[in-house]
Amino acid sequence: MQKKYKNFQEFWPFYVQEHKHPLNRKLHFLGTGLALGCATLAASRRRPRLFLLAPLLGYFFAWMGHFVVEKNRPATFKYPLFSLRGDFKMFGMMATGRMNEEIQRILLEAESEADSATQAEQLQTEEFDEWADLDALEEDAEDLPDYV
Hints:
The protein is an all-alpha fold. The protein contains seven helices and no strands. The longest helix has 34 residues, at 99-132. The two termini are 49 Å apart. The model has no long low-confidence stretch (mean pLDDT 87).
C-alpha cells in the first residue's frame, strides 16, 4: 500500500525513487522542456489553443518514461500537484547538473532507513527468542514420558 504524503517534502524522496532510470529522467526533461516551450510560444503569439498542446507534450514523454522504461505507474495519477512540482524541481536540478547527486542522496537515505528497519526487526526477533527460549523447551520436552 502506498503511503499518503502530507506535503511535498515527504513526497520528494518517493518521486526521486520513481525516476531512478536515466532514460526516464531524460524523457521527463524533454517533455517538460517542450511543454514550457509550447506554453511560452502560445503566450508570445497569443494563441490560447496552443496551450492545450503543452500538457500533452509533457505527459506523453513522461508517461513513456514510466510505462516503457521504468515500468511503474506515474505518481501523477495519485498526486497530480506534487508530481507537477516534482517534475519542475527535477527539470531545474537536471538543467543545473545536480539531479544525479540528489538521486544518490535519496537512495542512500532509503537504504539507511531500510537497514534501520531490518536491525529493529532483528532486535525484536532476538528479544522474542530470548523470551521464548525454544532450546530450553525442546530439552524439557525430551524429559517428558513417551506415551506412544
